[in-house]
Amino acid sequence: MADINVLEKEVPQTNYDGHHDDHHGDKFQSSFIDRYIFSQDHKTIAKQFLITGMIWAIIGSAMSIIFRLQLGFPDSDMSWLQPLLGGWIQINPTTGLGSIDPQFYYALVTMHGTILVFFVLTAGLSGTFSNLLIPLQCGARDMASPMLNMLSYWFFFLAGAVLFISLFLNTGPFSGGWTGYPPLSGLPQASDGSKAGATLWILSLVFFVVSVLLGGINYITTVINMRTKGMHMFRLPLTIWAFLVTAILALLSFPVLASGFFMLTFDRVLGTSFFLNEIFVAGEVLTTRVGGSAILFQHLFWFLGHPEVYIIILPAMGLVSEVLSIHCRKPVFGYKAMVFSILAIGVLSFLVWAHHMYMTGMNPFIANIFILFTLIIAVPSAVKVFNWIATIWGGNLRINSASLFAIGFVSMFISGGLTGIFLGNAAIDIQQHDTYFVVAHFHIVMGVAAFFGMFAGIYHWFPRMYGRFMNETLGKIHFWGSMIGAYAIFGPMHYLGMAGVPRRYYSFENFDAFAGFASMNQFITIAAIATFFCQILFVINFFYSIYKGKKQTEMNPWGATSIEWTAPVNCGHGNWEGDIPEVHRWPYDFGRHGRDFIPQTEPLADGEIDGGH
Amino acid sequence: MEMVASPKKIQRIHPKKFALWMAMLSMIMLFSALTSAYIVQKASSDWLQFPLPQQFFYSTAVILSCSIVLHVAYKAFVDKNYQLYKLLLSLGFGLAVSFVALQYSGWLILNEMGVFVYTNQSSSFFVLLVGVHALHVLGGIAALLISWIFAMRKNTMEWSQKGQLRLELTCTYWHFVDVLWLYLLGFLWLQQ
User: Fold this and answer.
1) pTM to 2 decimal places
2) Number of Cβ pairs closer than 8 Å across A and B?
3) CATH fold for domain A45-560
4) Which of A26, A394, A461, B29 has the most C-beta neighbours closer than 10 Å?
5) Where are the domains of chain B?
């Protein structure tokens, strides 16, 4: 079966020879629909992922504002939200005050988690930048299969459409938490949100898994098989390494989530009991639903769930490494250490999932193994942090929105990573697990940090996407607002958690122990609202700059070495006119031989040794 | 650029073939998760074991012969022996469909024995494993159907690089679901 390998000329996209396949302005882009809707151009698909992700980010964070209002101002009148939320605002007949329906509060929290984790930080982050940068930085005309790539976006769109429809059900969207633990997700009679809401939630995420797998297969294949001439693995920018490992993690972990969803669907539809045992609903015993185990679902879920947090953070790490190096005008410190850290994180991420489950009554000796691996995964993470700081150290730093967000990422990753060491230890986690400490930890380390990485990437590669620059002043306001805002929101939450304030509660009014934290909750809510409006500023800047931003006049505005800037501004499908450039050196030749930078396309001089080796 | 010694040209695997291998890797993860869950649940709950009906062994013979037939059909296509290719492809397609039919008839036998999907964890897992595998087989049948339609159309009869690649990918996937079934049968048989 190997005989097909040798016939390269017939295969347009292997493009090892570069000149067989220049098909810009091709049949793929002949009409409006081909060009902008069902486009197979990786750059357009990247923009589709980004803008869809932005819309979901606005919806998801607006939801968090609504439930933060409930937490910060539980006694205030919310009837002004009635035009938006309708029946989910309950009007007290005696006082006339409106408040959020408690069931809907849980639905909002569930949707916030699902939307932000899957739709924004997985699809919006890795979908956007893997699509944009893998072909451009590896030197390929497009992905291995542009068709599957297009389907990847449209399955994501379908997943989003299904979840969006579930928001309008009269029993409400799914409300059992973004982790979807049974029995809330497995039994339709368990709660209102467990009815049609849960069915649509599972359906939506199954579509999402299909989207991620189609995308991931393409990303891996393109990086492994379609690099341009001279682009060895150790000449790849760290972005590509990060996207590659991210896609491998997704490919290996999302099918396990799918297996859990299949079993959940069986439990819901066919009357099986994979995850159900000794269930009481409204005082009634379900005698036929025995023998299953809810913990089994947790294992299947977190076997995805933990790699998922690295699926979120690795692309951000890759973007930050690249942005920091370019804007510090210095080679990234410890390129190979960075690569091996990414690989180590990738491997270890499969061995730590049960640290989300210390509270399930697992054997403490088994917990010890997961503690060990959790602490070990801190090592490659710390290596990366050290290398980022060493990259900035002594660099000729350009202060702009991209570099500020990259530095902000490092700050957030350190702050959030440190509390991870607390929570990785079962003895401390058992105290902290159901408190705001956990909320603060994961929001900083994988929420805010990943967003900062994404923002750094957007500000930096905006010219590559639209041929214009984003507004720097608005960008800097956006950065400082987000930086201060994020710490103002999540800093106090650590304190709440240490004091034992439980997460997932709708109201603390009936608990004397937590009465003293009302003003802190108010402060957090106000900070959250302010930070939300900062993000709106970013959205305005983004869309304004697409049409009115400063035009990109030179091909390589940041003085970067990697080859995505050798393609013309606003290039068509196929990226390069003529041959794909050949690569001769690693991507971080800054300040070498007294020159500001040397592009990857420049041949090595006589006797010169490639910088990466 | 000509002045620089070009790096050695590497013989790379065709991207679409590589992509198929990646897809198969994710399917292996899916079935590993399902069979792991099976082992865990079997150890921890009231487990009622039932015998495997003969039908599942007949279907095994069918899917194995299907793989062999398709392999020979592929060789015939490469050798440009179109008459043999058409014949074998049709035969392979028939075998593929009868595999699914046999799996279903085996399930009907189990129903007659009083084993239903909700009877016990064992029967739930059985349906899950066999059912999810059957879904993957249906994907293979869809791919075979495409090759078959191409084979029956006169103007696409001739050998082409694209046709060979499509057929090779289909065969690889078919061998994969075949091996997957052997794994599942062995697994279920060992668990008895």
Assistant:
1) 0.93
2) 143
3) Cytochrome C Oxidase; Chain A (1.20.210)
4) A461
5) 53-191
